[in-house]
Design brief:
The complex is a heterodimer of chains A (75) and B (350).
Chain A: H1 3-35, H2 44-56, H3 58-65
Helix pairs in contact in A: 1-2, 1-3
Chain B: H1 12-38, H2 48-76, H3 81-85, H4 87-110, H5 117-123, H6 136-152, H7 156-162, H8 164-171, H9 173-187, H10 195-227, E1 230-231, E2 234-239, E3 248-251, E4 259-264, E5 267-272, E6 286-288, E7 291-293, E8 300-301, E9 318-319, E10 321-324, E11 327-331, E12 344-345
Antiparallel strand pairs in B: 1-2, 2-11, 3-4, 4-5, 5-9, 5-12, 6-7, 7-8, 10-11
Classes of the chains: A mainly alpha (75), B alpha+beta (350).
Amino acid sequence: MNADMAAMIWLGLGVYLGLGLLIGLGVAAFGLTRLTPGAAHMPWRVRLLILPGLTALWPVVLLRLAGVRPKEDRP
Amino acid sequence: MAASFTLVGWNRFKRSYDVALIAGIVLFFAAHVGAGILGTPAGQAPSELQVVIRASGAAAFSLLTFILCIGPLARLTPRALPLLYNRRHLGVACFLIALVHGALVVLWYHGFSQVNAFISLLVSNPRYDSFGGFPFESLGLGALLILFVMAATSHDFWNAVLGPRLWKALHMGVYAAYGLLVAHVMLGAAQGETGLVQAALAGGSALIVAGLHVAAGQREAARDGAAADPGEGWLDAGLAAEIADGRAVIIVPPEGERIAVFRDGAKVYAVANACRHQGGPLGEGRILDGCIVCPWHGFQYRPEDGCSPPPYTEKIQTYRTRITEGRVFVEAAPQPPGTAIAPSVIGEAG
């Protein structure tokens, strides 16, 4: 691996997580109840706690927001 | 069990658990740092930062080894169940220690490089085509990323959003992380002056983890083999009288998940064996106050419909049962989660 390739890896990771952070902040503020009704009235400190997960798994989060439910919850 | 999401559902046991965890980590660091400073000949002493780097690496690896032993131990002896109750805090602690280790490594070994420290981390050893000389730093980085995802999704919120199967599959990544860490130690710390000791400790730890998993798997396989007996869509769960009151036998259908067949007095019920929370073995739990209680974290389900009592909303699959000549038969096909099914009653004509 050379320096250019290493830079690309870090850039890719940074873009993925940066995008995830933006999406995660939006979801933590406005979209949690669309993910699970149990998140209604979730305190802000809990929203902050789950923000790293929203950042890391934002593609799955977007799928859930689009209505793709977990296998167990499908009729 | 919680109807809404909180930061941590604290109780006395969890507090005691975390106090023991913190005390254990502090003691480990004190012993490791002390041995690192006192056990090195004068003139060859590493810097304080290097000692902390080694101690944090050893602590994260040891903690992950311990975490991986808890699951099979809990299958082998109920006495290990309390360790399992708050295992996620161990996982988060392990990630945080590993993060400290990684941050200090970047700072100490790559922070003074001519190139960016993070790029240096990946290219300082370019032997990616070598087996014995593979850059162990990249292996550690891979493990750290996996531990991050697991720690970040350890809250119950993620179990609800991802669903138990995906959540479980994601968290099985811990084995990949552990494999990467074993290789990280073998190709890194084990190549130093105390290499043999490091290699023996890492290899021995991996053998213990593997051995416990094999032992637990064999025990489960032996039990499964004795229980299942498929025939015309119904499974023979054995004699009703042999099911202890308030307890269950676990049977394995030809396809699908294990089934827990519970007896509550004269009534017999069958539900999915996997808890909706973290897949705990409900059939190893018991019925208390009319509800099945998961042995792992205390989640509860009514045996008659597989629903958690209000205000909780978890549901598991239920199964039809019948009793013929004293033997319990369970329909192999599950009913949708939360479906109410009348129990079979011991002593009534089947």
